[in-house]
């Protein structure tokens, strides 16, 4: 009996292996860039997220565990680009003694993986590091070191370093990326790490991401690495929205300006949800403001959404009303239907027809990197120039090749009022496993 071959990355100018790939926020951008010679394959642990990827037609390795694979595996050996967003670490809890200790551990262990000249020396160091991380109470400390292992093994074992490396995570991971920059420069890469604001790039949501970009250039490791430049207005509470640079008569929602330093106004929730929300509205966040859990943040539909997390379905929506003093009027009985999964995806800049699967869709959406931001990052990292205008229209109009379950069916589901239960498979996750990206926004 003949068994089908496991999925593998085809040879390509820019063949991407995406670690901790999630539902496809980066891979869908790679699909849009296919004409530039971009292909991608993702490594993802979570079965529900893998189902979403399959429905979207995204290539995913048969082996689910990032730690069980490496650059020499046949399914990913053709990769020239490494990307990834390891799960948020325990050190993402700012100011805690435990968080500081976890950060110190990561930086110390990362240093032990640097400056090895041969495979045997690196293997010995990795064995010691892995033994230590496996013994830790929080196995996520080991996850953030996995991209570094892949980078070193590509150079020392495969004999072909990755030409480009892109890593991204929440803002609290920046100290790790800055430490990785120093290590990668000693490994032959020009590397930099910067904080990017998603609304700066036309995502209808405020979200900060720590991004590392490295390009193999052993003769010029100190050179500048180009990062995407803002195309849209930065959101600040109370700021006035800029007038549009373009008139959008072609019907485009996310039009981008690259000329004269002009930027477009931020893209609002109302812009992104115009097909489903005709009336102006107010979103009351699930999270408190200023340390007060009762002081819920509020955004009007003409503003970008707050950060979309796995608890996005807990945000409440109300018609936009004001009293004579100009204060917002919010009445419980006026509550509007909560965001559907389709709408939450749109606020992350996913296509309206993205085929979300399973019962933990909100978590998948909240954990993902916005595809629109991915287009900006990949274009600058791979091509060293801004993304093409047509890519944003292709992203907006994207549809899966096979018919998906109508999102309307998902929209009718009752609001999630508690985090989704942990599946039995997740409960049995090994210490070396690679789960779907965790959310710590």
UniProtKB/TrEMBL annotation:
Question: Sorted alphabetically, which SUPFAM superfamilies does this protein's record hold?
Answer: S-adenosyl-L-methionine-dependent methyltransferases (SSF53335)
* Record has Protease as a keyword: no
Kindly identify the residues recorded as the active site.
88
Q: Which UniProt keywords apply?
A: Methyltransferase, Restriction system, S-adenosyl-L-methionine, Transferase
Is Transferase among this UniProt entry's keywords?
A: yes
List the biased-composition ranges (Basic and acidic residues).
293-302
| Protein name per Swiss-Prot or TrEMBL | DNA (cytosine-5-)-methyltransferase
| Species for this entry | Streptomyces microflavus (Streptomyces lipmanii)
Taxonomy-wise, where does this protein's organism fall, top ranks first?
Bacteria, Bacillati, Actinomycetota, Actinomycetes, Kitasatosporales
């Amino acid at each position: 009996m003949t068994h089908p071959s496991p999925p593998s990355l085809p040879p390509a100018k820019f063949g991407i292996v995406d670690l901790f790939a999630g539902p496809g926020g980066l891979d869908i951008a790679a699909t849009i860039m296919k004409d530039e010679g971009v292909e991608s394959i993702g490594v993802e642990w979570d079965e529900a997220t893998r189902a979403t990827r399959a429905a979207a037609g995204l290539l995913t390795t048969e082996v689910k565990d990032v730690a069980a694979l490496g650059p020499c595996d046949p399914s990913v050996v053709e990769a020239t680009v490494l990307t990834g967003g390891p799960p948020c670490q325990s050190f993402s809890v700012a100011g805690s003694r435990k968080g500081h200790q976890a950060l110190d551990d990561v930086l110390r262990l990362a240093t032990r993986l640097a400056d090895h000249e041969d495979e045997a020396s690196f293997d010995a160091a990795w064995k010691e590091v892995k033994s230590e991380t496996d013994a830790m109470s929080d196995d996520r400390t080991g996850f953030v070191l996995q991209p570094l292992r892949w980078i070193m093994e590509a150079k020392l074992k495969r004999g072909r370093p990755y030409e480009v490396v892109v890593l991204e995570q929440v803002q609290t991971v920046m100290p790790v990326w800055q430490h990785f920059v120093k290590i990668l420069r000693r490994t032959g890469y020009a590397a930099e790490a910067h904080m990017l604001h998603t609304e700066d790039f036309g995502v209808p949501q405020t979200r900060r991401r720590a991004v590392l970009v490295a390009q193999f250039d052993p003769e010029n490791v100190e050179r500048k690495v180009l990062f995407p430049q803002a195309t849209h207005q930065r959101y600040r509470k109370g700021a006035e929205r800029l007038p549009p640079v373009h008139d959008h008569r072609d019907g485009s929602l996310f039009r981008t300006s690259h000329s004269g330093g002009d930027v477009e106004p931020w893209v609002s929730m109302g812009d992104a949800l115009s097909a489903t929300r005709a009336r102006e509205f107010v979103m009351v966040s699930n999270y408190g403001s200023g340390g007060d859990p009762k002081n819920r943040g509020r955004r009007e539909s003409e503003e970008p959404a707050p950060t979309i997390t796995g608890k996005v379905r807990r945000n409440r929506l109300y018609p936009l009303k004001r009293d004579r003093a100009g204060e917002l009027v919010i009445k419980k009985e006026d509550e509007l239907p909560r965001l559907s999964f389709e709408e939450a995806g749109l606020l992350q800049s996913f296509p309206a027809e993205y085929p979300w699967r399973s019962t933990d869709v909100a978590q998948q959406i909240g954990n993902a990197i916005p595809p629109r931001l991915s287009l900006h990052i990949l274009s600058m990292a791979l091509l060293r120039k801004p993304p093409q205008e047509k890519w944003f229209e292709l992203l907006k109009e994207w549809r899966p090749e096979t018919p998906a379950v109508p999102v309307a069916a998902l929209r009718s589901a009752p609001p999630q009022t508690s985090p989704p239960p942990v599946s039995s498979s997740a409960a049995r996750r090994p210490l070396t496993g690679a789960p779907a990206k965790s959310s710590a926004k």
